[in-house]
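Technical appendix A lists one of the benchmark inputs used to test multi-chain prediction within the project. The record comprises two sequence entries:
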Amino acid sequence: MDLLTELTILVLAAFVGFEVISKVPNTLHTPLMSATNAIHGIVLLGGLLLIGPAEGFLTELLLVIAIVFGTINVVGGFLVTDRMLHMFRRRPEPQKQVEEDEQPRLDEAA
Amino acid sequence: MVPLASFLQDPDFIRSLYIVAFVCFIVGLHFLNHPRTARRGNLIAAVGMAIAVIATLLIEEVGDYGLIALGIAVGTVVGVPAARNVKMTAMPQMVALFNGVGGGAVALISWAEYRESLAAGGNPALETLIPLLFAAIIGSISFWGSNIAFGKLQGLIPGRPIQLPGQQFINAALLLVAVGCAVAIASGVESQGLFILILVAAAILGNMVVLPIGGADMPVVISLLNAFTGLSAASAGVALDNVALIVAGMLVGASGSILTHLMAEAMNRSIPNIVAGGFGGVAVAAGPGDGDRGPVRSTDPADVAIQLAYAGKVVVAPGYGMAVAQAQHTVRELADELEKRGVRVDYAIHPVAGRMPGHMNVLLAEADVPYDHLKEMDEINPEFPYTDVALVIGANDVTNPAAREQKDSPIYGMPILDVDKAGQVIVLKRSMNPGFAGIDNPLFYKENTALLFGDAKESVAAVLAEVKEL
């Protein structure tokens, strides 16, 4: 792919990033930071692409470490974000309300 | 070759998979807009990542699957328990650490790519070489800077600013060395030594830039480094001709920049100012407003319980101190008890309460506080004059009225929670030590302020017991 095509993609991706993210409420900034943090673990792909053709012990060692680092970044990042977001589950109370509302109606139907 | 295999390895098929991955990333980030869809959003982004990884493994030139499996296995074995076991209070340093390894991966990949290209006959073409050098510098800065940030938040390195004489000149010189070597390589010098020198200079620079930054500014720094890692990944993508790296890296670069800007704004700090360092630990000399300072009034749990139980509206202003004491569950129990008595309890969340924007929301959500009771600063500030009791738990700087009133204060102009406008302010505090930023807080000396000394969790538990007695 030629450089200008890549730069075009780069610039457009930046704008998509700004647009999608500027709408996130304050409340979710820490999980957002953590999620984006996990996404840049995509550098892992760089390690995957290079290790096949790579020759020499040191180069391969560097790339294995890079893959380890990238995997920690991706796996740890998404997991930790999930743990944080798990905390945002709704409290059961409103559901109970609904159930209580529905209960008499069922009785009436019966 | 089997038709299926040749189809799977078709570059167009792999690119199509990448497109699916981008859609996942963007939709995932979009779903992070709302607490209800956020978890699904994260999951979708993770699926996108899995698709991108599988697509890359299908590429014909990719080989050495044994080493790849080894790397992924080790990374998983390290990453999963780390993410599973980290305490919610330690989240900021965990993000710093994950960010650091990402930056480290970028630096290592660029180094390996340069070695390969030297082995193949010499410097790569400029359109590969320049982004490669950029990725090396930024990746190395991000790796070391994030590690220092981790060390500071974890308490391994003193949180106070560590400053050397002539710091700015040393930093400038290091940057000059890194950029100078990069220019030399770009203009034709073929030397792995120079490339390593770039990595080392950038590494020292990463250390030197983050060391002098006080703990209070650390979230902004982590966010900035997060954006840096994204940019370096995108840059590595240009060097390696890989669209997935370019798009995902740039999405992160953009989001990290916005987040950094928002955080800096919430603290009324400019980003260059933070990077220049020095704030966040400087003990401030007594200002002119100190003369009329009265003695502090301390109170006891029984008294606090009465005030809370007979209030109409209570606003809790939680800070990092509450999280450290693990008091959030007890606070929620107290709030439940009060609500049973018809008291309306809201939580005032300063944008940088805790150690990162939204950190406090996570901690309170963990304790099952319903999120519609979490009020952001702009929403809650007009309500303080109608609030009977403001309960400040382990928060300090974000409630410091000096930010409004004292022009010479280092935090002057920072938006704060106007807790002092409530009828009664009760501050739960361990001792009279100044807060994280090391700035004294005139709030403690106000007439309508009473202090309840002690460990936040024990104090809240004592108040809860008294409320139940009433």
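The longest strand of chain B covers residues 313-318. The beta strands of chain B are 313-318, 344-349, 374-376, 389-393, 424-429, 449-453. Comparable benchmark entries are summarised in Table A2.
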